[in-house]
Amino acid sequence: MKRFILLMAAMLVAVGASAQKVVTTVNVVNAKGETVSVASILPKGKPVVLSFWDTSCKPCLQEMGAISDCYFDWMDEFDFEVVAVSTDDSRNSSKALPLAKGRGWPFVIALDKNGDFKRSMNVQSNPTMFILDKTGKVVYTHIGYTPGDEQAVYETLKKL
């Protein structure tokens, strides 16, 4: 019964997310240290994997590592982009860019120091991943990470 309730809750989250669009009017900090609108970091006309993470979250780092490992193979098949949004606060955000660079993550990295973007997307915990279609509509949402979850990302990108 408990599994059924959890499954139903996950399905409701997925259904609710499917009508959601990304709030692009909030600001984040880009890799150059500039405050920019979310709209300026999201590529236009292609699917986007949008992942919220933080430097102290082991599942986040595992998920981003798994996506990084698949990234170039997937790029051979799909025209998409990954935007990794660090939700570290202003005290810890200075660790995010060096960590991403040190791990060789080939994505767009943004810093959401004040949590404005996180709140606008109703992200309650990290990691949280959204996949956006070419129009910016959320077509997939996933909270948490278990090794192998990247297969669902691949399958969703394949459909787009």
- Based on helices, strands and strand pairing, what is the structural class? alpha/beta
Largest sheet: 5 strands, mixed
User: How big is the Rg?
Assistant: 15 Å
How is the largest sheet built, in terms of strand order? 5-4-3-6-7
The gist of it:
This protein is α/β, with parallel strands linked by helices and 160 residues long.
Walk me through the structure.
This protein has 160 residues and is an alpha/beta fold. The protein has helices at 2-18, 38-41, 58-77, 96-102, 116-120, 150-159, and strands at residues 27-29, 35-37, 48-53, 81-86, 108-111, 128-132, 138-143. The strands form two sheets. A five-stranded mixed sheet has the order 5-4-3-6-7. Strands 1-2 form a two-stranded antiparallel sheet. It is globular, with a radius of gyration of 15 Å.
Tags for this model:
single chain; 160 residues; 5-stranded mixed beta sheet; two-stranded antiparallel sheet; 21% strand; globular
Would you spell out the secondary-structure blueprint of this structure?
Elements: H1 2-18, E1 27-29, E2 35-37, H2 38-41, E3 48-53, H3 58-77, E4 81-86, H4 96-102, E5 108-111, H5 116-120, E6 128-132, E7 138-143, H6 150-159
Parallel strand pairs: 3-4, 4-5
Antiparallel strand pairs: 1-2, 3-6, 6-7
